[in-house]
Amino acid sequence: NCFLxxxxxxxxxTSLSWEDAQRYCREKHTDLVTIWNQAVNEQLFLETGQKSxxxxxxxxxxRWQWSNVSANTGANWGGLVIKSR
Length: 85
Prior knowledge:
- There is one protein chain.
- This protein has 2 helices and 5 strands; from the N terminus they run E-E-H-E-H-E-E.
- It is globular.
- The protein is α+β, with helices and mostly antiparallel strands.
- The chain has helices at residues 18-28, 38-47; strands spanning 2-5, 8-10, 31-32, 57-60, 63-66.
- Strands 2-1-3 form a 3-stranded antiparallel beta sheet, covered by helices on one side. The chain has a two-stranded antiparallel sheet with strand order 4-5.
- It comes from Erpetoichthys calabaricus (Rope fish).
């Protein structure tokens, strides 16, 4: 899922690694999606047809970090459950 800005998202069905998906989204759109809250999570889950997709969250050096660095202080994960199959 790529973030287009102002809560607009696009789902690209091409199978890519996380790094390639991030590069693609940054070149064609803005970045991989940041999930700000449960409502956004549910919206994306429905829009993707419940298919697997990359989000902009990554675990590196014993910590979680958003691809969109400006989002690192804004997203609250308290109680948020990312749906997966």
